[in-house]
Design a protein that fits this description.
Length: 370
């Protein structure tokens, strides 16, 4: 695998810029750390595209808009990016926000390559305009449910915040676990304080608690309460949505945040491209890159390939989704129509269940793959 050119070897890009819109949560209540990693991956890939000649001699330009996890801001951003004449829209981490952005992109005939959001029903009806790199929630969360079953858990409590995303996750878990003899006990976090969660776990004889809640509130206080309750010493805490992936989790919880399995979308071993990009992302972020940073990089890699082959015409970009064959950081990317999924889907990126090692919380252990 070739290495990126040095600045002296960079190819001149002096044509009119080809613009891509980027939707990223950069302020609260958005998951800012995830947004920072996503943006780092997007920006690194744009820099590398421009260092190797851009798009047929024109520079690739990223037009970033902060969604702050607000669907209304995302809709307004898509409208603005459409008026600015971007060739396509990329990014977004939060599923509910991405769903609104996808609907708006469909209505405006604007290609949208979703980087990280996993909600199965990203659009209400099939659309030719939207493609996605992240695996659908049903695929990843069934893998997580299989991990729970293999670990011997049959009474699983879920601490749930009100949200389409969390409700979807609860339904996926229940539909997969119930036929296999496992019970899913729902704890409404609108009604329960962290201490009351502990009492409910004892009352229901739960052996596992899954955090289907926001981060850091109320996830962090719930973890602290459960960890400090001697009645729950043997209860597994899980976080399928990936809260422990980011360094803030370890900073806030320390050793209490270890041994909490979560989903991440990386292969067991990165290939040459992934290893090179991972090193560059680490330098850019000043910390280990999350899978979200790789998703950002792969997003621009795909769009750059499409733009080089088909130009910035929006209709031609959308028509290209089923013909994409691009080597990404985590494997070869192709899009297809997948049953139950309304957008063009990469099926599938690698899926892992991992946790932070209690002996060394900065190190991740792979517990299960799917």
């Amino acid at each position: 695998m070739s290495t990126p050119p040095s600045p002296s070897a960079s190819v001149r890009t002096d044509g009119p810029a080809v613009r891509i819109g980027a939707l990223v949560p950069l302020t609260r209540p958005g998951w800012v750390e995830a947004g920072r990693h996503l943006l780092a991956g997007l920006e690194l890939a744009v820099c590398e595209v421009n260092d190797t000649g851009g798009i047929s001699g024109s520079p690739l330009e990223l037009v970033v808009r902060d969604t702050a996890a607000d669907p209304r801001r995302a809709a307004a951003a898509v409208d603005e990016l459409d008026r600015l004449g971007v060739a396509a829209v990329a990014g977004e981490y939060h599923s509910v926000v991405a769903r609104t952005a996808a609907a708006r992109a469909h209505a405006r005939g604007l290609p949208f390559l979703c980087s990280s959001a996993v909600l199965d029903a990203l659009t209400e009806q099939p659309t030719p305009w939207v493609a996605r790199l992240a695996p659908a929630q049903s695929h990843g969360w069934r893998t997580y449910a299989d991990f729970l079953l293999a670990a011997g858990h049959s009474r699983i409590a879920v601490a749930v915040d009100p949200s389409v995303y969390w409700a979807s996750g609860t339904r996926i878990l229940r539909d997969h676990l119930a036929p296999r003899g496992a019970a899913v006990i729902e704890l409404d976090m609108r009604e329960l304080a962290p201490e009351a969660v502990c009492d409910a776990l004892v009352d229901h004889r739960a052996t596992a608690l899954l955090l289907l809640v926001g981060h850091p509130e109320p996830a962090v206080p719930v973890v602290r309460s459960v960890r400090h309750d001697p009645r729950l010493a043997d209860v597994l805490i899980g976080a399928p949505a990936g809260q422990p992936e980011f360094s803030q989790w370890a900073t806030l919880l320390g050793s209490a945040g270890a041994a909490i399995p979560f989903l991440r979308y990386l292969p067991e071993r990165l290939g040459p491209l992934g290893a090179r990009v991972g090193k560059a992302l680490r330098e850019r972020l000043a910390e280990a890159p999350s899978f979200v940073a790789f998703e950002g990089y792969d997003t621009v890699t795909v769009l750059a390939d499409v733009l080089r082959s088909h130009g910035p015409d929006r209709a031609r970009i959308a028509e290209s989704w089923p013909h994409v064959t691009v080597e990404g950081t985590r494997g070869q990317i192709r899009f297809s129509r997948t049953p139950g999924i309304s957008v063009w889907q990469w099926a599938w990126t690698p899926v892992q269940v991992v946790d932070r090692d209690p002996a060394e919380p900065a190190r991740f252990r792979v517990l299960h793959t799917g």
